[in-house]
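User: Sequence in, structure out. Go.
Assistant: Echoing your sequence, followed by the structure tokens.
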Amino acid sequence: MTPWNIGLSTGCFYSRPIFDVLGEIRDSGFESIEVCSFPAHLDYHDKDAVARAGEKLRSLGIRPVSFHAPFADKIDITDLDPAVRAAAVHELVFACDAAAVMGVKNMVLHPGPEREGRPPEHEFLDRMKNAAQSLNIVAERCCKQGVHLVLENMLPHLLFGHINDMLYLLGSIRNCEVGACLDTGHAFLARELGTVVHKLSGHLHLVHVNDNRGDRDEHLAPGEGHIDWAWFVYELRRCHFNGTLILELSSRPNESTADMLQRARWARDYLINLMAKLD
């Protein structure tokens, strides 16, 4: 089989300016990336920095496949307070505009807040309705900017942390086509990885590739945790996936850029070898 495009999330360098690592990422053989929105990495509110990042990407020949929208407690598109929701939507629209300036193809968005637990049913339904209304606004802006909005499955302990919640929200967006990003680590912790590929197959554009041991979100390289990657790669092919795999890995304490990229190359080669075995 032809290997899928494999890119790297710059989130593994979230505490370092993006300008300091792009050259080394390219020299390591990664031609596609997902851009992290952490302010110390790239302040997407700084229009000059965003424009320079876009120019740097183009000069290096790096394709920005995706931009991960910001997520934080204060960015809550489900909040019962209209003013809080409006501020959250404004933040995501701002991020969409930054993605467009950089020439990004997809904006990956957590469809719910970083809020633990499930509230009483009436509040849950109100929050779901608020999320759908907010996402329609963000999706419309993305369409106008030529950026494809992609929703990511969240950790299971968070609001909307299960795949059925995400499928409902995908179906609630009417303004334009919206896709899905499957985070393998999140799905594995939710005990949903066995079915999620098929449930999302009609929407799936990106896969955040990371591993864990089933007890916390470790963002290990594939093969370092308990996910059965040979099975997973087979399932992706069986569902005719033709998008991009984004390695979303955590760096180790005091790890150099070179050492982090060496591990990322190992992870990429590990996946390519698994793909080759399917031929």
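User: And one key feature?
Assistant: The chain has nine helices and eight strands.
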